[in-house]
Design brief:
There is one protein chain. Helix content is 29%, strand content 33%. It is of the alpha+beta class. Strands 1, 14, 15, 16, 19 and 20 form a 6-stranded mixed β-sheet that branches. A 6-stranded antiparallel beta barrel has the order 2-9-12-11-10-13. The longest helix is centred in the middle third of the chain and has 51 residues. The relative contact order is 0.17.
Amino acid sequence: MAVLEIPEMADNEARTYSRPQAVPLVRLPENRWTQYAYFANRRIVALLMLAISSIFLASCSPGAAAKQPQRSSAVVVGVSKVTRQNLSRTLKLAAEFRPFQEIDIHAKVAGYVKKIYVDIGDHVKAGQLLAVLEIPELQDEVTRAGHTVSQSEQEIKRAQFELGQAKANYQSAHLQYTRMAEVIKAQPNLIAQQEIDDARSKDQAAAAQVEAAKATLAGAKEQFNVAKDSEDRAQTMYAYAHITAPFAGVIVKRYADTGAMMQAGTASQTQAMPLVRLSQNDLLRLAVPAPESVVPLVHVGMLAEVQVPSIGKTYKGKVARFAGQVDFSTRTMTTEIDVPNPKLELVPGMYAYASLVLKRRTNVVTVPVQALDRQGSQVAVMRVTPQKILERTSVQLGLETPDRVEVVSGLNLNDQVVVSARSQLREGESVQPKIVDVIAPQGEN
């Protein structure tokens, strides 16, 4: 190899260029900037020639065309078919179970607890004896009332005897007077007028005695009724010494023990202590706050599914009653769902979610909510025609749920609608449809 030296550029830089031995020396311009331009132009020309040669060789290669990817003009889009399904709009609300009814059982009369037969957690039946009170005063009153009734019965018997005696006397006197009257009619001067007058007086006195005896008997009967009423009242009050369950339920709290003094529950001036608290748990109430928007749809008999997370079960219930008025502060209406609990698996106070079926449609044409394009009150979908061309179709909707909507008009069964990347598509564009699984959005409608 020979080395070409340039003395004029030795002060700033020295460059060496390799070339074959037979290459003759080239005379370069003497100006330094002219030399820079000379070498730069030669480099650009060489690079251009190299690029042109590469392109020419690549285009002439037999496998070049095969290596180029074939780009399709049709865009792949995700679609879903129009199908028939059963739709239902539900409202899911949270609430706590409450007993169907719960009361504190008080004593009607004051007394000491002689015996208490129940404790917390006991299941009792309607009419079952819960406790017995000891009330000596009422026992004495019942005894006195019984004696008064017996005395009244005796008075009635005596009055009945006197009435019978008076009737007998009246019959004798009346018969004697009647006979004298008949004799006088037959023989006017046979009997003295004085005797006739005495017989008439006795007859009238006997009749008066009969009426007096009847009045005495009636008074005795009235006295008996009064005594009987007093006895019944005393026995009724004494019956309150036996405290019974007004309905079937569970004893959830016990306030008193044997020997405790129970005040009368009717005394308004005192805070009477109850005996026990009784709760009916075989039927529970679930009070849910229905929003104002669904108040017109709530009615008695609506089916409800009640989910209880604590035990992982779902129960059936019905709307039994509702307030009929929207609360001014919460804008909700209290709605009560009755949930049967025959096995007592549910306990009042448990947290639950109630799902009310507000509307239901059976076997209707539906599409996923992801297929809808809403512009104000207008709703449309991008439908893929059999020729795989996009077509914007206006639809009329019916019932809407969180994942699917009912299509009243505009689509037919098995039509394909676009559910993805609609913003990048245009009507009339050729596409390649691909059935995809639509994921339902989370939440309740």
